[in-house]
Specification:
Elements: H1 4-16, H2 19-25, H3 30-44, E1 49-52, E2 55-58, H4 60-89, E3 93-98, H5 103-116, E4 121-126, H6 129-135, E5 143-147, H7 150-154, E6 159-174, E7 195-198, H8 204-210, E8 217-221, H9 224-233, E9 238-241, H10 249-252, E10 256-260, E11 268-276, H11 283-298
Parallel strand pairs: 3-4, 3-5, 7-8
Antiparallel strand pairs: 1-2, 5-11, 6-9, 6-10, 6-11
């Protein structure tokens, strides 16, 4: 039976009209190619080539075999291309870079998405917005989620961005906090409050106005569970964005309350989906982003 290598051999010999030239082109010895073609001729019971001092030419039967070989090779190439595109479009791993504000909604989306797509795996990296901008081009991320100004994003090369939401900075407090029953708080009222903070958060404008000293910061961590436990059980406050945990059980059951800043109009924050100009979304990435945006809309 004719194999893949033999198909390549007879097609190239027919094109070059020479076994030696075809052998050089395919990096095989003359004798090796000649023996393989002779073996194929014996198996098929026909002569594929007439060999003479003037060169090598296909026989009538050989032209039929060569034509079929060309068709088969083209079919195999198209199949390999389709398989490659399928694997690329159905990539089973998503690498996502995000600011902490999106983590809760992303995790919820991942759990639901994975339950419906068992073969999908995720890599979720949290960083502050400055680090995201700096690192996004360096790694092979599928996309990133970030709070940023339009002006900052326009400075970056090779990045496309889609606006998701304009939100505000709030505080999270537990029942032990003196602010728990407030409808809003002022920055001046928070001046002497104990804080817990995300390592990867970036609330420079707010912190500049509240001017907390080091003794007021109980802990800095990227462990959400630790930070929310401290908020729940102490008087500490946590700065976060308005939508970050709005639909979480700890907020819905009243263990933690999200309170807006009275000066929220001074702290609007634009949130963006960013991705590389040079990297198209895979089918899986598109489906996940659609699910995430649906969940996001429900949380705001």
């Amino acid at each position: 039976m004719m194999n893949f290598e033999q198909m390549e051999y007879i097609i190239n010999v027919a094109n070059e009209m020479s076994i030696s030239k075809a052998a050089v082109k395919l990096f095989i010895s003359n004798s090796g190619m000649s023996q393989s073609i002779t073996q194929l001729e014996n198996e098929l019971g026909i002569k594929i080539f007439n060999r003479s001092k003037q060169g090598v030419t296909p026989t009538f039967e050989g032209k039929i075999v060569i034509s079929k070989a060309i068709t088969l090779l083209n079919t195999i190439k198209e199949l390999n291309k389709e398989i490659f595109e399928y694997k690329n479009n159905n990539q089973a791993h998503l690498k996502i870079l995000t600011a902490p504000a999106f983590t809760f909604i992303l995790q919820e989306t991942m759990v639901k998405f994975n339950s419906e797509n068992k073969d999908i795996t995720f890599e979720l990296i949290e960083q502050n917005p400055t680090e995201i901008i700096q690192n996004f081009n360096k790694e092979n991320y599928d996309f990133a989620l970030i709070p940023s100004s339009l002006e900052e994003l326009k400075k970056e090369k090779n990045i496309r961005f889609e606006h998701i939401h304009t939100g505000h900075i709030c505080i999270a407090v537990g029942k032990n906090s003196p602010f728990y029953h407030h409808d809003y708080v002022t920055l001046s009222a928070l001046k002497d409050s104990k804080l817990v903070m995300y390592n990867s958060s970036d609330y420079k404008k707010v912190l500049k106005l509240t001017k907390p000293n080091l003794n007021q910061v109980l802990v800095r961590s990227n462990s959400s569970s630790l930070l929310f436990k401290l908020v729940k059980e102490s008087q500490a406050i946590l700065f976060l964005h308005d939508f970050a945990i709005k639909n979480s059980s700890m907020v819905l059951n009243g263990d933690i309350k999200i309170i807006p800043l009275k000066e929220e109009k001074h702290f609007p924050v634009d949130f963006w989906l960013i991705y590389l100009e040079t990297k198209n979304f895979t089918k899986v990435a598109k489906e996940f982003i659609d699910d995430f945006l649906d969940n996001f809309k429900k949380s705001i």
